[in-house]
Amino acid sequence: MKLVLALEASSRTYAVAVGAGEGPQAQRAARRDDPGFAGLGALITQTLAEAGAEFRDIGTIAVDIGPGGLSTIRSAVAYANGLAFSLGVPILPVTSLELMAIAAQPDHPGPFLSVKRGQGGTVYAGLYRDGVMTEMRHGAPGSVLPALAGDLAEVCIAGAAREDVSPILPGIAVVDAGIAEADILVLYRAGLAASAGSDRLVPVASPINEASKILHESATASRHRL
Known about the structure:
The protein has helices at residues 40-50, 70-87, 96-104, 141-149, 184-195; strands at residues 3-8, 13-19, 26-31, 58-64, 91-94, 112-117, 123-129, 132-139, 154-158, 173-176, 224-225. It is an alpha/beta fold.
């Protein structure tokens, strides 16, 4: 059975997981600013070796496309694209906003508002409800967050910026999911599910940044499901 390789890089930490079952056979993580960090390629090679596998055993690559640390996201997506091309395997691109919402699902019925800080006081935010990321936006918190959650009576917040949300959403009951970042295990399980067949598998992934089209589409156009 072919393996799933998951690459998560939306924070300062690179995380890798590989396997073919409910849980990965091996996983590793390393901060990119650690003096001993030899690069993403080395981290993946080490993880495969720990799993007793080789690159040729990979059948699906799941990659966190952001938003997050711009350099780490670009590096991870570029690596995933190059590896997928060389192996002839598909990629499952998943946003860090969606990963945080999925991680919050076991403890809350939703809907979920995932938030990540951007540059210059901006945020990236996404509304996830009924198993779908319905819309994602980038901009000033005071305009983006009410636009996404303004019609809700209650919302569960995930992301490192979640403590800033309540004052911006008066009249909405805000529940803290306690989740700050995307989780490699959530990404791995998404890749495992997609490996059986999914219309979200692509040959080439693109990193999310403030100019990405998906952040400026209508709610209908931006809907996607794991």
